[in-house]
Amino acid sequence: MVTPEQLKQYIAAGLPCDILEVAGDGHHFEALIVSREFAGKTRIQQHQRVYQALGDRMREEIHALSMKTYSPEQWAATQA
Question: pTM of this prediction?
Answer without folding.
Answer: 0.94
